Automatic annotation (TrEMBL):
Name by which UniProt lists this protein: F-box protein
Keyword Flavoprotein attached: no
Any one Pfam family match given in the protein's UniProt record, by short name: Cupin_8
PANTHER family recorded: ARGININE DEMETHYLASE AND LYSYL-HYDROXYLASE JMJD, TRANSCRIPTION FACTOR JUMONJI, JMJC DOMAIN-CONTAINING PROTEIN
GO molecular function: metal ion binding; oxidoreductase activity
Gene3D superfamilies the record matches: 1.20.1280.50, Cupin (2.60.120.650)
Domain JmjC: 224-387
Region (Disordered), start-end ranges: 419-444
GO cellular component assignments: cytoplasm; nucleus
SUPFAM superfamilies referenced in this protein's UniProt entry, alphabetically: Clavaminate synthase-like (SSF51197), F-box domain (SSF81383), Protein kinase-like (PK-like) (SSF56112)
Family stated for the protein in its record: Belongs to the JARID1 histone demethylase family.
Swiss-Prot/TrEMBL keywords: Iron, Metal-binding, Nucleus, Oxidoreductase
Length: 976
């Protein structure tokens, strides 16, 4: 694309845009810049040579900042400009980067879009502050007055809370440079990649940069990498109550941040995660704040709610852009609550409030989010399944579609007195991210005006009102989990369970939150019905809430454990219980010693609700209950003594669903009013997850040996007969070799290869979407490894398992699939008081367990039980190593070695071509099998791997990951 030389016209220089851009001239500058952001740095550098206008478009620092950060990860060092930084990361010779040629100037080209960006890059904010503002300021406020006037109600600027902090004089740029110059802090930017900068490099960047939206330090791990900073401040007395502090540090969501940023940097419009409240203390510099009450979306901001998983995404301009381009468009009644924060001041931001922050000069601050009694129910609401309520919490009734709006209009509206700050309500249905200054009233059509009035008079940030928008058909245990939630489903259950036990005085409030987030009232009613049928005592108040972190409601009632199967929908629940009961049946038939380490089954059955009446049917796993036949949940013809929902039926069910997305709602997973359940004897002691940090190295080593021995028993247990041939659809996917359309020389009398068909077919189906699944999981899985996954995993899994010439390298076996730290029970093996030595273990154990008030120290613990066999399957025993090694052992190769020494079984038949584990053939490496199973796992196992072995995030190949994680397997001598 060449252009003629510019000619001087009578009215001035000719507009060179058309000639310089050719066919691209029809695109506005903002679209052209957006296209350039999708190119590589090298391509942009080349494109700059095409024409004068392309040179101008491709020279912009904001463009090069985007290009650099898009491809950056890990440690970043700024090279005086973003173009030099980006090209330096391309490993170009310095002569191409350090170009001393002067700037080129062109007449005949104007761009308002580029001018605005340039202006924002060089804007000075010396006078850009609010003299007084309209946020209330208080000094020396009591805790009682704070709760009564502000907590959960409105923002307030507090003075005097940090006067005694060492940080007031120690947290300056110069002192932090001296004390933390080489510490690498996390940088906030508009990218999903994790970028770090050493503080000394960041200070250098702050001095040199001319960015419209500068990088700033926003690090939630600063207490780990610079622990001395935690000694320089303390949580103010007004914010000591924090329900999340009941969780261990590694399980609680991010809650405290060090914030450092230069002039023009800041946080764009947002609502804090999980609808938590926050306090923010400024140590140096000045910050300008703007705030809107819950539901009032600022002009220029758009809220998107994902209807699949409820995740809320926000499109927003930068802080500076909003104040320059959108703030002037607001009528006085639509302007935000705002103020300027000065050093030593602490601002309180209540739950659900929109806020935006702009640094007027270099600032240093610390902030923490918290959950207390005023926002607890809102936090539970935000983590409840469904999506509509999430949007309403942030955008008010304006987030509803027309049907939802009409439903609310027909129902009772909130009292006007409950609608706080209605004077600040916005007028448009959905804020728009435009720069053309559209009239704020342009959306107030007849319906729009009606909706605005309803929002103004009807919306209330009240938990009862907001709970109206929960999706009643979605259940916590059977619905997709929003990726934007601050903690996972398991962590949520653990959190509520711990609160229930440790804060009995708060149980009325905790119960309300649990009913919102977990449907605890429904499961409590089911529990009562189960207890009645089995002549069990009614649950005590202590026993009303589900316990544990599993994927099904579990209750502790007296000396029993009641588990209600709901995960994956009704059909999956039936297969879970049916397989477990079949396993117990075989366990007792062969009189395996393993039964001494598995909780005794006391009862089981199916509970269902029909026309408001509960019916409870006993079921031992055999035959097909009438309620199941009625709902057409099985097409198999089974005898009354057959396990119709046993493990082979479950394997077919898993195969059928291997290519199907997980159900998006309860309606797609079968009836929601039928619940299989099991009652087992309660174990004495504690689960390993609760004891991990208290156990000695010797205790953990004994646990490794115990697990090896018990897994050996599980893998040797006889398999039930294969009774579901033929597998016409499975054969198509299995990848097993055929001759003339038939499987070659396979002996179906032993069923060995037939058993492997389902296992291999399921792996093959999972392989088909492995790239999309890994991409969806994303960080911390390295992008470059995701792109190489297809070439690493075999296309024919029969080759990986060495199934050739009618011989399988090993038999299938029972596998537990879920031996994790919450499915292992430990009991005291040595208890003593300070004046006693260990006596007889049995007596000590009895005293400890029977009288918890006795002041005794547990000297050691021994493993006693393995729990939760609902995930039982049949397949490769190596599969069982994944949860044990990654979750229980946390990647400790020494514990894996002890486990293998106790396990003793071979993982493969030692045939001639695999005489040496050093063979270059990857199919001869046990580590290769284990790594492939990790990649194809239903759960995000790779996320755990790259979290345990952080250094592998820079790995260049899957082989490197494989040998680092699973290399110990290749030293295993468990071959016959």
């Amino acid at each position: 694309m060449m252009e003629p030389s510019t000619t001087q016209m009578a009215g001035g220089p000719r507009d060179r845009r058309a000639d310089a851009l050719g066919d691209l001239r029809v695109l506005p500058d903002e679209i052209l810049c957006a296209i350039l952001e999708e190119l590589t740095p090298r391509d942009v550098a080349r494109l700059a040579c095409v024409s004068s206008v392309m040179y101008i478009l491709c020279y912009e620092e904001p463009l090069w900042m985007t290009l650099c950060l898009k491809g950056a990860s890990g440690l970043l060092q700024y090279k005086s400009s973003w173009k030099k930084t980006a090209l330096h990361r391309e490993n170009l010779p310095d002569k191409y980067i350090e170009c001393n040629r002067g700037f080129l100037h062109f007449d005949g080209f104007n761009s308002l879009y580029l001018y605005r960006r340039l202006y924002r890059c060089h804007a000075k904010l010396d006078a850009f502050y609010v003299d007084n503002g309209n946020v209330e300021r208080r000094k020396d406020i009591s805790l009682e007055d704070f709760h009564a006037e502000y907590d959960g109600k409105k923002p307030v600027m507090l003075t005097g809370l940090a006067d005694a902090w060492p940080a007031r004089h120690k947290w300056t740029t110069d002192q932090l440079l001296t004390n933390c110059g080489d510490v690498a802090f996390k940088i906030s930017h508009r990218s999903s990649r994790k970028i770090l900068m050493k503080f000394k490099d960041y200070v250098s960047y702050m001095k040199l940069q001319q960015d419209e939206d500068p990088l700033y330090i926003f690090d939630e791990k600063f207490g780990d990498i610079a622990p001395s900073l935690l000694k320089d401040y303390c949580v103010p007395h007004l914010f000591q109550e924090d329900y999340f502090d009941i969780l261990n540090e590694d399980k609680r969501p991010p809650y405290r941040w060090l914030i450092i940023g230069p002039e023009r940097s800041g946080a764009s419009w947002h609502v804090d995660p999980a609808l938590t409240s926050a306090w923010n203390t400024l140590l140096s510099g000045r910050k300008r704040w703007a705030l809107y009450p819950p539901g009032k979306v600022p002009l220029g901001v758009t809220v998107h709610v994902n209807e699949d998983d409820g995740d809320v995404n926000i499109e927003t301009p930068s802080s500076l852009q909003w104040w320059l381009d959108f703030y002037p468009l607001l009528a006085d009644e639509d302007k935000p609550i705002e103020c300027t924060q000065l050093p030593g001041e602490t601002i309180y931001v209540p739950s659900g409030w929109w806020h935006c922050v702009l640094n007027l000069e270099t600032t240093i601050a610390v902030t923490q989010n918290f959950v207390n009694s005023s926002n607890f129910e809102f936090v539970c609401l935000d983590m409840a399944p469904g999506y509509r309520h999430k949007g309403v919490c942030r955008a008010g009734l304006l987030a509803l579609d027309d049907d939802g709006y009409e439903d609310v209009k027909k129902n009772t509206l909130c009292d006007e007195q409950n609608s706080s700050h209605s004077i600040l309500s916005r007028r448009e249905k959905r804020a728009r991210n435009d720069e053309d200054g559209d009239d704020l009233n342009n959306e107030r059509t007849k319906n729009g005006a009606s909706r605005y009035n309803l929002w103004k008079d009807g919306f209330s940030y009240d938990i009862n009102f907001l709970s109206m928008f929960l999706d009643k058909d979605r259940d916590h245990y059977r619905s997709p989990w929003s990726s934007g939630n601050s903690i996972g489903q398991r962590e949520l259950r653990e959190w509520l369970s711990k609160l229930w036990v440790r804060k009995p005085e708060m149980r009325e409030l905790i119960w309300k939150g649990a009913c919102i987030a977990l449907n605890a009232d429904k499961w409590s009613e089911c529990l009562y019905e189960i207890c009645c049928l089995h002549d069990m005592p009614s649950p005590l108040d202590d026993e009303r809430l589900p316990v544990g972190t599993g994927s099904n409601p579990v209750f502790l009632v007296g000396n029993t454990v009641v588990k209600i199967f709901v995960e994956g929908g009704l059909e999956a629940a039936l297969y879970g219980l049916g397989t477990e009961l079949e396993f117990y049946n075989i366990l007792h038939e062969v009189n395996s010693s393993l039964k001494n380490h598995i909780p005794e089954v006391l009862g089981c059955g199916i509970l269902y609700l029909d026309n408001g009446t509960y019916t409870n049917l006993p079921w031992d796993g055999k035959g097909v209950p009438d309620i199941v036949t009625k709902n057409n949940l099985t097409g198999q013809k089974c005898g009354v003594d057959d396990f119709s929902f046993g493990v082979w039926g479950k394997k077919q069910f898993e195969y059928r669903n291997a290519e199907m997305p997980k159900p998006e709602s309860i309606s797609s997973a079968g009836p929601s009013n039928i619940w299989p359940y099991i009652i087992t004897k309660r174990c004495e002691g504690k689960i390993f997850a609760e004891l991990r940090d208290r156990l000695s190295r010797e205790d953990v080593a004994n646990l490794a040996s115990f697990l090896g021995e018990k897994l050996c028993h599980i893998h040797l247990l006889p398999r039930p007969p294969l009774n579901i041939l033929p597998f016409s659809d499975i054969e198509q996917d299995s990848g097993l070799p055929k001759i003339n359309g038939n499987f070659a020389s396979f002996n179906y009398k032993s069923s060995m290869v037939a058993e492997w068909e389902i296992f291999i077919g399921t792996l093959t189906r999972r392989r088909k979407d492995v790239l999309s699944r890994l991409t969806k999981w994303g960080d911390p899985i390295p992008r470059k490894l995701i792109e190489k996954v297809d070439e690493y995993i075999p296309h024919l899994f029969a080759n990986m398992l060495n199934i050739t010439e009618g011989i399988a390298c090993k038999p299938c076996s029972w596998i537990h699939s879920d031996i994790m730290d919450d499915n292992i029970y430990m009991e005291p093996s040595c208890v003593s008081t300070s004046s006693e030595t260990c006596g007889e273990e049995a007596q000590a154990d009895n005293d400890f367990l029977c009288d918890s008030s006795v002041n005794r120290d547990v000297k050691s613990w021994r493993p006693s039980y393995i729990l939760d066999f609902s995930d039982l399957s049949i397949g490769d025993p190596i599969f069982d190593l994944i949860p044990i090694y990654l979750d229980v052992f946390r990647g400790d190769s020494y514990l894996l070695k002890l486990f293998l020494e106790s396990y003793k079984l071979p993982f493969a038949i030692n045939n001639s071509k695999n005489d040496s584990t050093e063979n270059d053939d990857k199919f001869g490496r046990l580590s290769y099998l284990a790594m492939c199973y990790c990649i194809l796992h239903d759960d995000d196992v790779l996320g755990a791997i790259f979290s345990i072995w952080d250094e592998l995030r820079s790995a260049n190949s899957w082989e490197e990951v494989e040998l680092t994680v699973w290399g110990e397997l290749n030293n295993y001598k468990g071959f016959p």
